[in-house]
Write a structure and sequence with these properties.
single chain; 117 residues; elongated
Length: 117
């Protein structure tokens, strides 16, 4: 139950990131979330939309693992590892906050899943 809840929350987070990057990137809300200027957002909107799509794939994989229930354990581990690696890379290269927003929750969910909770 704890694993399911954490996985669902991480999937929802990635759906939200998809929306921010694909549809709200140039809005005040999107610019505030990522700390960008209007000029930068305009110049990078295609790149942001591409990032958003990747976040959507992460969410889809996590949702798929939830749909499969007990049979989706290996898929859940794979996608949680993908989220963890993406979060570590993002924290190292883009913004340290990504470590706490993306990597730490994924690591926690992965640990809980592997503990069988």
């Amino acid at each position: 139950m704890i694993t399911t809840t954490l996985t669902a929350l991480i999937a929802l987070l990635h759906v939200y990131i998809l929306v921010l990057e694909m549809f709200l990137w140039e809005t005040p809300r999107g610019r505030k979330a990522f700390g960008t200027t209007a000029e930068f957002a305009a110049q990078t909107r295609v790149l942001a939309a591409n990032q958003g799509l990747y976040n959507g794939f992460l969410a889809a994989g996590l949702i798929w693992s939830l749909y499969l229930g007990a049979g989706g354990g290996a898929i859940r581990v794979f996608f949680l590892l993908c989220v963890l690696v993406a979060g570590l890379y993002g924290a190292a290269t883009a913004n340290r906050r990504i470590l706490f927003i993306q990597a730490v929750p994924a690591a926690l969910a992965l640990a809980v899943h592997l503990a069988g909770l």
